[in-house]
Write a structure and sequence with these properties.
Blueprint lengths: L2 H15 L12 H10 L5 H14 L3 H5 L3 H8 L5 H19 L7 H5 L6 H10 L10 H10 L8 H11 L5 H14 L18 H4 L5
Helix pairs in contact: 2-8, 5-6, 9-11
């Protein structure tokens, strides 16, 4: 099957099976989404959503969080992964937002990546979800699912995966396609035991056709 035909079938499937696909992180503002995505690195959205209500009540914006100490932030986020480094990053990024951006989260991906603790994936998530930009954040779910289905060919890095997905997915669908792949990986095409019996893509999936789920 030609790569373009595979992408069309996968997109058509998700468009019908998952017409609404959104982030599962809870947030109210661009700043809060940025914080939640930083916290979600190597941590589940469920866990992040457990700690952010109290954190956002105490520090609802960059101006408030910029006045906090790392220890104060740690007290709210100690149950997430790597709380020490994330506390340090959150205070530093809040201060940079206050001092250099007037407390406003920038829409530009390069500007976002200047913020402490913000890598390409986090910047792409904020750009796609908040600013509706044609970005393709690649996390472990997107990386795994794209390779298994065959959307990417032996991709070795998240950036290589991103570039191939962006090449074939229409720009207006990129932000939604990001969520399609994440949610499919989270609930169906799981890392250890993919639920192939519940998947509607087995007819085109490279991993399934090679007996990967047998």
């Amino acid at each position: 099957m030609r790569k373009a035909d595979l992408y069309k079938q996968v997109i058509d499937f998700f468009a019908e099976a998952m017409p609404v696909a959104e982030t599962e992180l809870h947030y109210g503002t661009p700043f809060q989404l940025l914080v939640a995505v930083v916290l979600s690195a190597q941590c589940t959205d469920k866990r992040v959503n457990m700690v952010t209500p109290a954190l956002f009540a105490a520090y609802p914006d960059a101006a408030h969080m910029a006045e906090a100490s790392e220890d104060q932030i740690f007290d709210y986020i100690h149950s997430v992964s790597y709380p020490n480094s994330k506390s340090r990053h959150l205070v530093a990024l809040a201060r940079m937002l206050r001092d250099e951006y007037g407390g406003v989260v920038p829409a530009d991906i390069d500007a976002l990546q200047r913020l402490p603790g913000v890598g390409r994936k986090t910047a792409n998530v904020v750009a796609a979800v908040v600013f509706d930009q044609p970005a393709m954040p690649v996390d472990t779910h997107v990386f795994r699912v794209a390779n298994r289905i065959g959307l990417t060919t032996d991709s070795k890095t998240p950036l290589a995966t991103e570039r191939e997905l962006v090449k074939y997915i229409p720009s207006e669908l990129l932000s939604k396609a990001h969520h399609w792949l994440i949610l499919h990986g989270r609930y169906v095409c799981q890392a250890r035991k993919p639920k192939c019996d519940q998947c509607g893509l087995t007819g085109v999936c490279k991993h399934y056709r090679k007996g990967g789920c047998a």
